[in-house]
Amino acid sequence: MQDTIKGNHSPVKVKENTVLEVQEAQIVGEKPAMSPGTVKSSSHMNFNKAIELAAKGRKITRQQWDNKNIVGFFEDEVLHIITADGKKHQWILQVADVEADDWMVF
């Protein structure tokens, strides 16, 4: 089933030197999950560094998510997240995530 975002939103495609616009939205669809791994780095970074690494193919997570296999990544230039229930969604960032400095490589 295709992910659907409530409101007037379109998929976020991110390329180098692109600024993401953060909006609140609710994901109402779901896709099959990818298999998450384990946290590979315990050193924390800010969102800018984390999203830069994600754009280079790395998976990212937050310490606040307490290693619940929640992971963010890019697929076809669209930002996705696998949630704690193992489902993949298009990721609509929250302000708290953008302001956080507890990002890690997954």
Describe this structure in words.
It is a single chain. By secondary structure, the chain is an alpha+beta fold. The chain has one domain (1-106). 13% of the residues lie in helices and 18% in strands. The protein has two helices and five strands, in the order αββββαβ. The strands form two sheets. The protein has a three-stranded antiparallel sheet with strand order 2-3-4, covered by helices on one side. A two-stranded antiparallel ribbon has the order 1-5. A hairpin with a 5-residue loop joins β3 (78-82) and β4 (88-90). The protein is globular and about 25 Å long. The N and C termini lie far apart (26 Å). Residues 1-10 and 21-37 have low confidence and may be disordered.
Shape: globular
End-to-end CA span = 26 Å
Largest sheet: 3 strands, antiparallel
How many domains? The number is 1
- Total number of strands: 5
Radius of gyration: 13 Å
Helix content: 10-25%
Query: Overall mean pLDDT score?
Result: 74
Tell me the β content: 15-25%
The topology string of helices and strands comes to: HEEEEHE
How many H/I helical runs?
2
Main-sheet strand order equals 2-3-4
Determine the structural class based on helices, strands and strand pairing.
Answer: alpha+beta
Low-confidence stretches: 1-10, 21-37
Notable traits:
106 residues, alpha+beta, three-stranded antiparallel sheet, 2 helices, 5 strands, disordered N terminus
Short note summarizing the structure:
The protein is α+β, with helices and mostly antiparallel strands and 106 residues long. It has helices spanning 47-55, 95-99, and strands spanning 60-62, 71-75, 78-82, 88-90, 103-105.
